[in-house]
Amino acid sequence: MIRLRRRMALIGLLSLMTTTPRLSADEGMWVFNNLPLEQLKATYGFEPSEEWISRLRSSAVRFNNGGSGSFVSADGLVMTNHHVAADTLQKLSTAAEDYYRVGFLARSREAELPAPDLELNVTSAIRDVSDRVNAAVTPEMSDAEAATARRAAMAAIEQEATAENGMRNDVVTLYQGGQYHLYTYKTYTDVRLVFAPEFDIAFFGGDEDNFEYPRYCLDVAFFRAYENGQPAHPEHFLRWSDAGSKPGDLVFVAGHPGRTSRLNTMAHLEYFRETGFPFLLDLIRQREAFLSEYSRRGEEQARQAKEDLFSYQNSRKARLGGYQGLQDEAFMRRKAERERALRDQVSADPEMAASYGDAWEKIAGSRAVAAENLASYNMLERGLAFESRLFQIARTVARLVAEDRKPNEERLREYRASNRPSLELDLYSEAPIYPEFEAAKLANALDYWRRTMGADDPVVHRVLGGREPEQVARELVEGTRLADVSFRKQLVEGGLEAVQESDDPMIRLALAVDPEARAIRKTWEDRVEGVETAQYARIAEAMFKTQGDSVYPDATFTLRLAFGTVKGWEEDGKTIPPYTVVEGLFERAESHGNVEPYRVPESWVEAKEDGRLDLQTPMNFVSTADIIGGNSGSPVVDRDGQVVGLIFDGNIHSLILDFGYDDTLARAVAVDSRVIAEALRSVYGAEALLRELTEGR
Fold first, then answer.
1. Is residue 77 domain-resident?
2. Residues 290-304: pLDDT tens digits?
């Protein structure tokens, strides 16, 4: 699954294209205000109309939990993946009703279930504000001072835009500092669950088949967006294709890829290979082992941990693939050659050499600072030493009341006025919190922190005080009142004084570690991010001078368009066909003994035995579209802009796409529109939902 989880963004991950060779035919995650229209026309003879572009842009939806989706009816019906919906399914589930495991279908609008803290964003406008952001920087400023000035300018732009349009506004850094664009979003916070299938069919094959192909998954879910208590009526929605796609068809993916690093320098990549990835993989494996052990304690413990466990398993497989890509000598040699080509161009021109020549060395210096501070930054500022929803709440409360005392442009980014509605939606969520799970997670994280930093580390010693992590975690979880939403609100309303005087142990912990956490954040922002924003901007300017704006920016969890063709591949002398069919689902289950993770739900078995299910229905398919984590839930549309599929994964070869595009073996994996319709009709009896989907009402 190509999931993007905020808590897994431990390090900005990877890739390189510091110089840009001629793009492959289907390469690119293109911003909607700079689409490769000439490339599409020259390669495919396709010229999308303004209406086609506008409809696709306005139909695409971003989920605040790290996924994508799309409007697929006039009444606010939103399609995404089951694994994007999983966070909500987990929060709506109980021991008695486990929607994550058994699925859910609302037979009426009244039966649709409100999601506790789900926010959907739809891009309504994009504007280049680079000149204004860069105007805040003066020549005598250091990189750190320049970064502070840019952040203040970005905050001011967002605040002014929100005052003007009443919407969410985010200034997004593109080309790692080469450009700044203001994205304006229409936001929906009343979002309700309509349908999700059983886990066993949504993630058929489990971790073993993840990032593999052939696949047989119905990784789909539907929500509905509401406004003022009524179903939303979006400006645009996508029509459904009954015919689906066929081999060789041109298809498009509109979604929100999370992060690539194709513009990174060799020094940056070498840091990830030698330092970043080893640190990340060690942490992921440790967390995965803990969650597996906790799940074995009982059925209820397994239910509580299931979503976290699958997230870490997915991340482990994805990051390991990326790490292996960095160790490929031929791949790294090609990247080094491309970087050298650009640097030679810069060196050959005295004016360019003076303007850009030392940018690469300065980035190498910033990566040395990153390596030195990596563990402290992740443990303290990113909170990996305190893995607990209760600690996250405590930190948010403590920082919110402190940041509110500052002018908006001086606040930490996540506490700016433009982000306040989203922050409060999360902070005051009624999602369940399980004390036993919280205490176990926190104890495990504290123990890992102690082993990573050493028991003599001053902050470790301050928190543990010679006690064992299990004792500290138990006292914190048993003593805190932060599971009570009204108590959280009371603290925030009481302001800084109420928080500082609180005797709540989790609040006391958040306050105790905040000075060091803020200090390491400032070091990171000034000496790593600040330097790299300035230096990558210089490299981007050199690229623009030699390449123009034909270079697409790295992914930033903003709306992008990718395209490609429905196409299998050749590997080890075998032809991998682009489609699988429903019949193959049952054959694969039988070949694995019909046991988890290859167990077909009883609803599907009955539909097959009753003759209701068409076994030749296309189930999953692959294409050459350029996707990455965050694209999960993106619609796949044809030339007419009709839905023919739903992105849910990439094959194992797609893991290299963090670094650069390849269409020889890498493929995007999608659920076929035809199996979604067939399942709703023949397995689940969801006729009303099917009519809405296919008729657009």
1. yes
2. 999 999 999 999 999
Separation between Cα atoms, residue 54 and residue 329, nearest integer Å: 43
- Write out pLDDT tens, residues 529-543: 999 999 999 999 998
> What are the tokens at 459?
């902050």
pLDDT digits (tens, 9 = 90+) for 295-329: 999 999 999 999 999 999 999 999 998 899 899 89
3-state DSSP assignment of residue 697? coil
Tell me the C-alpha distance between 339 and 322, whole Å. 20
Q: Residue 253's domain spans which residues?
A: 6-119+189-262+553-695
Angle between helices 469-479 and 389-403 (to 10 degrees): 60
User: Concatenated DSSP letters for 453-502?
Assistant: H-TTSHHHHHHHTT--HHHHHHHHHHH--TTSHHHHHHHHHHHHHHHHH-
CA separation for the pair 587, 214 (Å, rounded): 12
Sign of CA dihedral 495, 498, 501, 506: negative
Round to whole Å and give the CA distance between 499 and 516. 18
Q: With respect to residue 394, please indicate whether it lies within any of the assigned structural domains.
A: no
Please give the single-letter amino acid code of residue 143: D
Q: Are 217 and 201 in contact (CB under 8 A)?
A: yes
Q: In which element (H, E) is residue 527 found?
A: none
Report yes or no on 588 lying in a domain: yes
Joined tokens for residue 646: 């739903």
Reading phi first (left if > 0) and then psi (alpha if -120 to 50, else beta), residue 277 is in alpha
Measured CA to CA, the distance from residue 683 to residue 676 in angstroms comes to: 10
Give the count of domains, the chain: 1
CA distance 502 to 311: 34
Structural domain includes residue 231: yes
77-87 per-position pLDDT tens digit: 999 999 999 99
Distance CA 23, CA 1 (A): 26
**pTM greater than 0.85 (yes/no):** yes
Backbone phi, psi, residue 310, to 5°? -65, -30
The Cα–Cα gap between 590 and 587 comes to: 5
CATH value at residue 34: 2.40.10.120
CB 325 within 8 A of CB 656: yes
Which residues, in sequence order, are CB contacts of 10 under 8 Å at separation 6+?
279, 280, 283, 378, 382, 384
Enter the DSSP assignment of 236: -
Per-residue pLDDT of 579-629, as tens digits, reads 999 999 999 999 999 999 999 999 999 999 999 999 999 999 999 999 999
